Amino acid sequence: MRNWEQYVRRVVPYTPGEQPNRPGMIKLNTNENPYPPAPGVQQALRELDAGSFRLYPDPAASELIDALADYYGKEQERFFVGVGSDDVIAMAFQTFFNSEKPILFPDISYSFYSVWAELFGIPYRRPALDEKLCLVKKDYFAENGGIIFPNPNAPTGIYMELCEVEEIIARNPDSVVIVDEAYVDFAGPSAMSLVDKYDNLLVVQTFSKSRSMAGMRIGFAYGQPELIRYLNDVKYSFNSYTMNLPSLKLGTAALKDRAYFEETVGKIKATRERVKRELSALGFAFPDSGANFIFASHKSCPAKELFEALKEQNIYVRYFASPRIDNYLRITVGTDEEMDVLLKFLKSYLRE
Ligand SMILES: *Cc1c(COP(=O)(O)O)cnc(C)c1O
């Protein structure tokens, strides 16, 4: 070992889903939206002037913050934006999770949480989901240094009712509770409505899924102004120019078109419900998903085998070789046409 190597911080990085770029592929492996962003985003892109790239972007991201405040009808001081919700959540870990006590998140959940906890040296504990893959509320009533969970959960897709989310927040007045709502637009009401009541609640959302802008990297947090101020202090101590100019402009444009947003989210939900029925008929079982993906297990064909067979067909889904979930496929809801190709192949493959 070379001498400097003893001073290297060694980490096991997060493994994102593959990003193959093959002609004709059907990409259902990273929960991207199959529809393009709102037409106003394309328009705003045309209007971008490369000359404006000469200057640093607005460190306060005011234009986007104003658009969020407008869209949700809340004050600017309650919003924080970042380079995807991954950036927002990583910043929140650094800001709020500095207790000696372990933070809590489910054993089956977004796998980035443990990566950040390791990176930042935050102790953590992962209470197990029950046999139906549901979060066990009372596990989160134990002493802790903070709490984070996605709602709907990933990769299960299960949406927890808001009254249960509220109970977890209410029972933890001494910790910050982060609700990661990457998929909430496809499910039920958001915990944003609870922020007035709880100063320890931070709700995080993203433009990557429901707003079709994964490539632009836009995420935000919503909380009481005090939490947001603390987040900004850490952000400005680290990198004040996190969001680039195109993301600020195009994210703002995306928020102007509520009708398009509702239409595409509605289409994805309708496709999801149809695919659920068809997968059931093919012998798949899955928790009832409130997200833009279905976490499915077949009664006789191993998930790993299906994953490989689908890949041969240029159809990409996600497979996790992790304990308890290694017989499931996480299938993103694409367009109706894409799902028809998938279902047609599954029908013939499972019949053989
Ligand atoms: C996709 C996802 C994110 C991250 O999204 P960004 O693209 O970084 O905004 C965060 N949490 C969960 C649970 C996700 O599925």
Notes on the protein architecture:
The chain is an alpha/beta fold. The chain folds into two domains: 22-37 and 258-351, Alpha-Beta Complex (Aspartate Aminotransferase, domain 1); 39-43 and 55-254, Type I PLP-dependent aspartate aminotransferase-like (Major domain) (Aspartate Aminotransferase, domain 2), CATH 3.40.640.10. Helices cover 35% and strands 13% of the residues. It contains ten helices and twelve strands. It has helices at residues 39-47, 62-72, 84-96, 112-120, 162-170, 225-236, 245-255, 258-281, 303-312, 336-351; strands spanning 26-28, 79-82, 103-104, 124-125, 147-150, 177-180, 201-206, 219-222, 284-285, 293-298, 315-319, 329-332. The termini are far apart. The mean pLDDT is 97. Bound molecules: pyridoxal-5'-phosphate. Pyridoxal-5'-phosphate is lined by residues 84-86, 110, 150, 154, 180, 182, 206, 208, 214, 219.
